[in-house]
Amino acid sequence: MTGTAANTTTDWTAATALLFDLDGVLTPTALVHEQAWRQLFEEYLAGTGRPGYRDSDYFDFIDGKPRFDGVRDFLASRGITLPEGPLDDDPAHDTVHGLGNRKNRVFNDIIASGGVAPYPGSVRFVEAALAHGLKLAVVSSSRNAPAVLKAAGLDHYFPVVVDGEVAAAHGLPGKPNHDTFSYAASLLGVPTQDCIVVEDAVSGVRAGSAGDFRAVIGVDRGAGRQVLLDAGATTVVDDLAELL
C-alpha cells in the first residue's frame, strides 16, 4: 500500500479483519504514556545541561515505538548515548533499559491510581465491527497492552493481542515495520490484503502503509491529519464513531 495526499473514504465493512493499535486508538492511555515520558526525561535531563523536554518530542521521537527504541531515539536527539544495560535493569540505573523500565513504573503508577476509560466512539466502532462479522486484533508496541485492555474492560473483544512482549518473544521488529501487524493477521487466519490497520501514531501508520494491507485508518489524536495522510493513511478521522 502506498500513501495518499488526500483524505478518502474507507469502506471498512468490506474488510475481513481490523487490526487496532491500543494507546490513543481504543484508550486515552497515549496521554498517560506522554505524561510518563515527560516526567522521565524532564528529571533525567535536569542534570545533563542538554536542552529540556519539549511538547513535540513525544511525537517526533517516541510515539508508537517500542519503549526502548523510544529511549534510544530521544537520547540520540540530545546527542546522548548510554549503555544498554540488561533487559530487566534496575529503574534507578541510567541505562537504556533502566530508563525504559523507570518510565514503565511511572506509567503503571498513573494507571493504578486513575484506571482507564476507553474512548466511547471506539467502543461503538468495535461493537459495530463485531456486528458485521469482522475479526479483531490489537497490535501495540506497549508491553502493558493486556493489562490496559483488562483495566478498560475491552479484553473480551480481542482474541488476538500482539504486544511488545509477543514481538520480543518472536523476534518481530517494532513499528514502523509492518511485522507485528502481519503477525496478528496470521494469528487471525486472515490474509493481510483483507485487513485494515487502525492507528493514531505516525510510526504505526507507516507500519500499516509498509505492509500489504487493505487500508490504514488514521485517528488524529494530536499527530495532525495531514501528517498521518502523508505517512500513508487512507482515511483520517478525529474519532472512530465518524465511520459509523
Instruction: Give the amount of beta strand, in percent.
Output: 5-15%
Number of domains: 2
SS summary, helix count: 10
What's the arrangement of strands in the largest beta sheet? 3-2-1-4-5-6
Instruction: Give the proportion of residues in helices.
Output: 40-55%
What about the largest sheet? 6 strands, parallel
Overall 3D form: globular
Explain this structure.
The two termini are 24 Å apart. This protein has a six-stranded parallel beta sheet, sandwiched between helices. The chain has helices at residues 29-45, 57-62, 67-77, 96-114, 120-131, 145-151, 164-170, 179-188, 202-210, 225-231, and strands at 17-20, 135-139, 160-162, 195-199, 215-219, 235-237. The protein folds into two domains: 12-28 and 117-243, 3-Layer(aba) Sandwich (Rossmann fold); 31-114, DNA polymerase, domain 1, CATH 1.10.150. With 244 residues, the protein is α/β, with parallel strands linked by helices. The chain is built from ten helices and six strands. Helix 1 (29-45) packs across helix 4 and helix 3 crosses helix 4.
Task: Output the keywords.
244 residues, DNA polymerase, domain 1, 6-stranded parallel sheet, 43% helix, globular, disordered N terminus
Short description:
This protein is an alpha/beta fold.
Topology record:
Blueprint: E1 17-20, H1 29-45, H2 57-62, H3 67-77, H4 96-114, H5 120-131, E2 135-139, H6 145-151, E3 160-162, H7 164-170, H8 179-188, E4 195-199, H9 202-210, E5 215-219, H10 225-231, E6 235-237
Parallel strand pairs: 1-2, 1-4, 2-3, 4-5, 5-6
